[in-house]
Write a structure and sequence with these properties.
Blueprint (H helix, E strand, L loop, with lengths): L3 E2 L16 E2 L3 H13 L6 H13 L3 H6 L7 H15 L4 H5 L1 E4 L2 E4 L12 H10 L7 E6 L5 H9 L3 E7 L2 H13 L6 E5 L10 E6 L14 H4 L15 H13 E10 L5 H9 L3 E8 L5 E8 L4
Parallel strand pairs: 5-6, 5-8, 6-7, 8-9
Antiparallel strand pairs: 1-2, 3-4, 9-11, 10-11
Helix pairs in contact: 1-2, 1-4, 2-4, 6-7
The structure holds S-adenosylmethionine.
S-adenosylmethionine binds next to helix 7 and strand 6.
Length: 308
């Protein structure tokens, strides 16, 4: 038996424009209600996200939400889910609510301190693994602007002979990357440090990974609210033309690479040719271009032609 209730009612809190009256005593009713609330905020897959948040809030698997739909819920259980739906209806990213994002089939802890890893960036990992495909006794990899550490740690997860350093100017991001290295049991081979790109480093590396901020500054406020309101602008802001970080990084690379060392760097839509021109002035020859899952040229691979 189900009962009609107006509780929980987000309308009173200004999150939605009308009162929802819906059966809220079983799992199916809760997912229906959450899907309706999230749908009103303009999410693309509200029902899917509702199921994910209900599963997370109740501490049950997605399968249980599918097979146990008539399970009666206590009011305390609604109370676990309600704040999650409220946060998501405020367009807080799902990954911030759950604290986890999957990247390269690995789980990374994320939060307001770092960029949420994007599937598009997996093409940097693919390029790096191609370069590191022949087993060696060791290889040293540098990750500039490491954020959550997702690029370096994914590569290290696949290549046991790799050791690496991740640098970020954000202390909080460096702490997050360290946590992730422990979570993935890679902390014995990975070090993370605060710094301005590679300025403080004195050793040379076989391979440099980098996903710098590349959004045009004036466009950031127009991005999805999940990005513009919740992700660190330090991780997004590429200056007036989106290329300012590439200009700072380019002169450092040859000094940080062994002769014929390689760089895999992410670029934004339409930026590839400008970055190729810029890097060629600093002794870096284009080796390959790789597209992301959406067919956008996303990863440029360079080889160091003149190590200084
Ligand atoms: C686009 S995010 C990439 C994060 C992560 N590598 C990824 O792919 O998800 C860029 C990162 O560069 C860092 N960053 C910005 N300016 C920097 C600087 N001057 N020196 C070092 N890191 C910087 C930001 O804090 C941010 O973590």
């Amino acid at each position: 038996m189900t009962k009609q209730t107006n509780w929980p009612n987000l309308a009173d809190e200004g999150h939605i424009s009308e009162t929802d009256s819906i059966s809220l005593v079983d799992l199916a009713g809760l997912i229906d209600w959450a899907g309706i609330v999230l749908g009103k905020t303009g999410l693309e897959n509200p029902r899917h996200e509702a199921r994910l948040l209900v599963s997370y809030g109740l501490g049950i698997t997605i399968e249980q939400t599918l097979y146990d739909q008539s399970r009666q819920l206590a009011e305390a259980e609604f109370a676990c889910v309600l704040p999650l739906i409220r946060r998501r209806s405020d367009r807080e990213p799902l990954a911030h609510i759950t604290g986890i994002r999957e990247f390269w089939s690995l789980e990374f802890g994320v939060g307001v301190d770092c960029l949420i890893p994007r599937p598009d960036s997996e093409c940097i990992v693919e390029s790096a693994l191609d370069i590191l495909r022949y087993p060696k006794s060791e290889a040293h990899v540098l990750d500039l602007g490491t954020g959550s550490g997702c690029l370096l740690l994914s590569v290290m997860h696949e290549r046991s002979y790799v050791s690496g350093i991740g640098v970020d100017c954000s202390y909080e991001a460096v702490c997050r990357a360290r946590d992730n290295s422990r979570r993935l049991k890679l902390n014995e081979r990975a070090n993370f440090m605060v710094g301005q790109w590679g300025a403080a480093l004195e050793r040379r590396f076989d391979l440099i990974l980098c996903n710098p901020p590349y959004a045009r500054a004036q466009e950031i406020n127009g991005l999805m609210p999940e990005v513009s309101c919740y992700e660190p602008h330090l991780a997004l802001d590429g200056g007036a033309d989106g290329l300012s970080c590439y200009r700072k990084i380019a002169p450092q690379l040859s000094r940080l690479l062994i002769p014929r060392g390689m760089v895999c760097i992410e670029v934004g839509l339409g930026q590839a040719d400008s970055v190729v021109r810029l890097f060629s002035k600093y002794g870096l020859g284009l080796h390959a271009r790789r597209t992301d899952l959406g067919g956008v040229e996303r990863c440029l691979v360079f080889v160091c032609l003149s190590s200084v």
